[in-house]
Design goal:
The chain is built from two helices and no strands. The protein is mostly helical.
Length: 45
């Protein structure tokens, strides 16, 4: 999604709302991944 958002920003036909939506999704995905990463780290310890 992050890569897609960056790709969309170069397209003139895409609205700001669409770009913002993809960027927000991107941030959420990163946060979830980070949370899952710390959870796995705890399991290892």
């Amino acid at each position: 999604l992050c890569h897609l958002a960056q790709h969309l920003t170069t397209s003139p036909s895409v609205t700001d709302n669409t770009i913002r939506y993809f960027q927000e999704q991107c941030v959420e995905t990163k946060a979830k991944r980070r949370r899952r990463g710390t959870a796995t780290a705890w399991h290892i310890h």
